[in-house]
Write a structure and sequence with these properties.
Blueprint lengths: L3 H9 L7 H22 L8 H26 L4 H22 L3 H17 L11
This protein binds magnesium ion.
Magnesium ion binds next to helix 3 and helix 4.
């Protein structure tokens, strides 16, 4: 596997096509690949219902995260470690849901960054609508 420095050298000749941000993105791509592979090692659920199972799991875990925030408001104390653990559970479901959709997690991560960069460049980062 190429290291960050190697990737930089690899694409120096094609600077017109690939900028430094893209190279940084490629560096964290491998983290997403690793993470998704690790999650899939523990993905034990009925595979014939994998799409629904992971969607429901993500909704459930995001609710657990919201619950930690809610309890912080109610009780006046906040357990950031417990909230962070719930975000981790969300990530597990995001990784497995992506797999069930037939996507690599890095494709999804790159897609959202590309979308947001494009919106920022067109000055439509604020507002609403999926197709801005
Ligand atoms: Mg949880």
């Amino acid at each position: 596997m190429a290291k960050w420095g190697d990737i930089g050298k690899l694409f120096k000749e094609e600077e017109d096509m690939i900028n430094e941000t893209d190279i940084e993105a490629m560096a964290w791509k491998s983290d997403f690949e690793w993470f998704q592979e690790e999650c899939l090692k523990t993905a034990i659920y009925p595979k014939q219902q994998g799409l629904a199972y992971t969607a429901l799991g993500l909704a459930s875990e995001s609710g657990e995260y919201a619950g930690k925030i809610k309890k912080g408001i109610r009780d006046g104390t906040f357990d950031d470690k417990a909230a962070a653990a719930e975000l981790g559970d969300c990530l597990w479901y995001i990784a497995t849901a992506a797999h069930e959709l037939g996507y690599d997690l890095d494709e999804i991560a790159h897609g959202v960054v590309k979308k947001l960069r494009d919106r920022a460049e067109r000055n439509v980062i604020q507002g609403s609508g999926d197709s801005r």
